[in-house]
Every structure is written in C-alpha cells, then in structure tokens.
Amino acid sequence: MRAHRRRLGLSQEDLAKRTGVSTSTIGKVESGRISHPRPVTMRLLADAFGLTGEARDTFCQRAEAPPDPPSGFQVAAQLPSDVYPFAGRAAELARLDALLAVAGERPTVMLISALSGMAGIGKTALAVHWAHQVSGQFPDGQLYVNLRGFDPSGRVMDPTDAIRGFLDALGVAPDRIPAGADAQAARYRSLLAGKRVLVVLDNARDAEQVRPLLPASPTALVLVTSRNQLTGLLATDGAHPLQLGVLTPAESRELLHERLGDDRAAAEPGAVPEIVSACAGLPLALSIAAARAQQSGFPLAALAADLNEASHRLDVLDSGDPLSDVRTIFSWSYASLTPPAARLFRLLGLIPGADLSTVAAAALAGAPVAGTRRMLTELTRANLASEHRPGRYTQHDLLRAYAEELASPDEAGAARARLVAHYVHTTCAANRLVYPTLDPIAVPLEPLPPGVEIDQIADQQAALAWLTAEHANLLAAGAYAAAAGQHAFTWQLAWGLDTFHYRQARPHDQTTTWHAAVAAAEHLKIAHVSAYSHRRLGEAYRRAGRPAQAFAQARTALLLFNDIGDWRGEAGVHLDLSMLAEQQGELETALEHAERSLAIMSGQSGLGELGKRTMARALNTVGWFRALLGDHVAALDFCEKALAINIGLGDDESMACTLDSLGYAHQHLRDHGQAVDCYERAIEIFHRLGHAAMTADALKRLGDTHHEAGQADAARDAWSRARDIRTKLKRG
C-alpha cells in the first residue's frame, strides 16, 4: 500500500483526508500491524489509488480473513518482529510484490527470491518487513530461520539443524522425526506439499546451504537473504535475484526523520545531509548514528562534525568491506556507553549460543542480576543488543564480531568460564528436580565462580520449562566446553540433560551430548565415568534407532564395568540390552538379559538404596518380558516384589513402570478390576512426572481393559484421553 501512496506522491495525512480513513489506521495497515483490515477501509483506499479490475481485486483481498488451516497441520508463525519504523525500499518492496503476483500466475513452479547485498545493507529488515505485509496471503504459516552463514566464529548452521527446527515448528513430535538427514528433509517437503507457506531463509552462506531447505511445492514461496549473490541458486533453481543497494539520499533522510522525529531533524536542516553523506546510504550506519544522537542529546551538527572527522574510517564503505565498516560504526555507539554497559557489550560477543537470559548475562558479566538488567536496557536502547523475546537478548552477527574483538583474552576466558559454569550448575539442579531419585552425579560440581548465580527453579514444571527454553544454548555450551577441553563441564552437561532428552524423546541430542561425554571421560580418567558414559551413549543410540551402535556401546560398557568390579553397572547394562532386544522383536533374548541382571543383583548382599533400585528394575523387567511371553502368573510375582521395593524407596518413576506391568499381567489374566486399578495408579504418576508418551500408552491399555470388561463408555474415555495426548505430542 505504501508503494501506491508514494506513486501518487501522497503523505499519510493526504491519504487520510482523501479517504476519511484515519492516519493511525493507514500507518498500521502499511506497517502490517493490521493484517486483515476492514473491507470498507480497503475499498476506500482502492478508490483513492484509482485501482480497477484485477489490481483492485488483489488489493482488496487483503481484507479477507485467512482460511482455516488444514487439519493435522500446525501453522507456524516464526517471523521475527517487524521493523519499526521502516523507511525507504519502495522499489524493492514493489519488486517483491510483483514476484508474488507472478507466483500466482505460475502455479506449477515454486518461486524463490534471492535477496543479496553487503553486510549492514538491511537485507533482513526488508525481508521481514515484506513478509509481515504479505503474511495474510500465506494462511498455512510462515517459517523463518537465521542460517548464520557469515557468523564471525564460523558457526554456520547445518541445513539439517534448520530442517529439524522447521519440523518442530510444523508440529512433528520429537519421537516422530526420522533419524537420517535425508529422511528428515523428505518429511519436511511432504509436510509442505500443497501448503500455502512463506519460507524465509535469512543470512545464507551459499546455494548448497539453501537447497536442502527448499520445499517441492509450487504453493510455497521462498525468500532467501545472503551477502553472496547465490549465482548457483539462480542458475539451477530458478531463483529471482534482487540485489539490494544503498539507500538513496531521499530514503536516508526519511530514515533519519523517522528515527529522530521531524521536529528535531527540521531544526538542523544543514546537519542532516552531512550525516546522510557520511553514512553513505548504509541503513545500519544511519540507524546507529541516529541512536547516538538520541542517546547523547547532543546537537546533530556535533554528530555530523564527528562523522566528518572520522571520514577516513568510512573509506571502507566505498571499498565494499562490510566488517571494517561495522567496526567503525559500532565504535561510535560503543564509546557512548557507560563503562559497565561497555564491558557487558564486549562479553555478549563471547556467548556460544544464539541468545541468553538476564540471569545468564549476569553470570557472563559476574555482576548482580539487577545491575545487569539495567545494562541490557542501555544496550538495547543503543541498538547494540535486542530483546527478541521477553527477558532474552541477542545480537546481530556483526555486532557480535565487533564485540568479541574488543574483549581481551583474559576477559574472554573468564567470562566464558562463568557462563558455562552457570549453565552446568543450573542444568544439574534442574535435572535433580525432574528426577529426584537419580543416582548421584559421578563427576562432582566445583563451586560456582565468584559473582555467578544459578537460575532459581521452584519445582519440576519450572525445571522442564527452563530446560526447554535454554536447550539450544545448553547444547552450544556443551559443544564449546568440549572444543575448549573443559572435560568436566562437558560430562556434567550430558548428565544434566539426560533425563530431559529421554522424557522429551530427543535421542539425537542425547546421542550428541553423550558422544562428547565419552571423549571427555577418557581425559577425566575415571573408570566408572567412562563405563557409565558408554552405557548412556548406547541407550541413546537404541532410542535413535541405531541398534548396531547401541549394542557396541553396551558391550564396551559391560567390559568396563566388569574390569572395575561394578556389578550394579553390569546389571544395568543387561537391562539396556534387554530393551534393545525387545526393540528388535527378540523377546526370548530380552528375557535372558533381564534374568542375567536379576541374577547379578540377587548374588549381592547389602545392596543399599542404589542397589535396591536396580534390583527393583530387574524384577520388573523380568516380569514384563514374562508377561509379553504369556507367563502372566509368574509376571505378577516378579512385579509385585518390584513394587514393594519401589514403595519402600519412594521411587515414583519405577513405581509407575511396575504398576503398568502389573496392569498388563492382570489384564491378560482377565482380572479386569485389578488391571484398571494398576493402570490408573500408573497413569496418575506418569502424568505428574511429565511422561506424556508413557501416560498415553497406559491409557490405551486401560481403554482396552475397559473394552474387554464390557465397559464401553469408560473405554472410549480412556482411548480419547490417549488420543488427545498423542495429538499434542505430534504437534510438539
């Protein structure tokens, strides 16, 4: 709409007078803050623009409500917040609008627009702004990912990770995501088949990084941004190029007026052209210059004078070296910060993850949380950081590069150590809340460094929420710790994330962390830690559907436990092997391993609490496989013994699993009343612990039991509850 208004040379006020539509409404429609305006509003605006025929119909369609999303498909809305205020780029926005119109005329060809240009030129701002304007035309959702193609640290996103994020956003439950990269890509393309979806691939490195993320459906539209021209994407994939250049002088002046306000810019008309000239039409430079003027309150002439004195630094703008440009531009804003905020700015460039919370930022700085919050506010006001979600902060890639350059080696090492310690301690505390009866950690935590706090997590649900919010950062912290040779931290993060990965059905992440932990354990030279690490890696492989690797790790763990005489560890590995055999349909072999585990535990005296837990697991596992093999009476005996131990220990998780086994045995002995009682008790515990999949399994068996007993209404209720849980799991 902005393009139509400017074509006629109208201001928003002029258009308001001509149509009777308020200036406020016009502004909100243009910025996308009103995604579906009233039909009468769009008709009045179409009249003012002189639109007729198909052009008028297309314009007015914006008022229509989007159709309901297809059933069984989760609509994603991943676009970052729109840029406000947004200035200039009328020609580029019109070009994108024209490409969108072409997409409608060519229904058999998927449209790709490759938006390229130098760093700081505003590629992301334009892509996101336009995406918000046209989001109503993509009722099946909008996907967005920052591919980090030019991350200064070299942390370029693997396309497989991007696809995994899209599958999560599209509602695919973690346990439904295929194991292989090719299979995941195929699932992604299948989900988008026939869907009207906008896919924004931001900051791509090259065509190779983009191609796995391209849908196969002609109903999808892909917008790619990159510093490179992506010639390969144009040559072989039919992408439409859109080279983004600098702002025109008029657009640059408009941006400054939007940022500073008309009154302030008009008060010093001679300074504005000098600032525009010195910034050379680079949107990022103009925005930071305006921010400096806003923050300092100094006359614009003083800012213009500073720019002219430093003009030799801006020579790089003409040479096309964006990194040097950004370094120079950021130095102006950095110099205006208070010393504490300047120090935090330097440290923000060091974080291994994509963002961080206020408490994590305080740990990074070794400063109190309240003071850190004030520093973060100062940085966001100076456009040197952004609060992309409430209480969570991030920086643009180039800002991070500049900040990291400013940090001294000693400063950087100490800050990263504090941040990783914060993550490790909080993760392990959260794991304890999620699984209170878990074995003690084999690599004890060192005391927190001075000035570092952990997140205060109240209960199990809060722990799950924290682990979910921080998961990507914790994986990044683990990768950093492994690369930096921080072996204890690497192992402790794997341990702290293990329960979350297990219950949230994230076997691939579990495999990654335990693979690093196995390597770390070799350096720690603690035999039990090595054995335990191989065992957990084997279990992760099993759950990831990689039986050969799972068996190899389990055998290694078994040998290591045997070498150090850890009979409890040996018994645990045999239980893992029993589940691996069950997964492969080898129930007799599964029972043999379970009985071997039970024999090991039965041959020991003075088991202690930990030994009793393993004994209870072995008894229940033997009972479960006896039941699966049809020996339900014997199964009851084993499982009842396990239940008595679990009740004495107060181990809710093992208790629920044993009650589920008892329910299965009673069900197949046609003792429906006992089966119902056991299933209902198991379901209550599973639900309380957050074991959604196990809750659904037990509900399904409860429904079967009610059905066998002739209780149709109760059966339908249990099955319905199980179906609802499964549906939620599929949607993520």
Automatic annotation (TrEMBL):
<dbReference type="InterPro" id="IPR011990">
    <property type="entry name" value="TPR-like_helical_dom_sf"/>
</dbReference>
<dbReference type="InterPro" id="IPR027417">
    <property type="entry name" value="P-loop_NTPase"/>
</dbReference>
<dbReference type="Pfam" id="PF13424">
    <property type="entry name" value="TPR_12"/>
</dbReference>
<dbReference type="Pfam" id="PF13560">
    <property type="entry name" value="HTH_31"/>
</dbReference>
<dbReference type="InterPro" id="IPR019734">
    <property type="entry name" value="TPR_rpt"/>
</dbReference>
<protein>
    <recommendedName>
        <fullName>HTH cro/C1-type domain-containing protein</fullName>
    </recommendedName>
</protein>
<dbReference type="InterPro" id="IPR010982">
    <property type="entry name" value="Lambda_DNA-bd_dom_sf"/>
</dbReference>
<dbReference type="InterPro" id="IPR002182">
    <property type="entry name" value="NB-ARC"/>
</dbReference>
<dbReference type="Pfam" id="PF00931">
    <property type="entry name" value="NB-ARC"/>
</dbReference>
<dbReference type="InterPro" id="IPR001387">
    <property type="entry name" value="Cro/C1-type_HTH"/>
</dbReference>
<feature type="domain" description="HTH cro/C1-type">
    <location>
        <begin position="1"/>
        <end position="56"/>
    </location>
</feature>
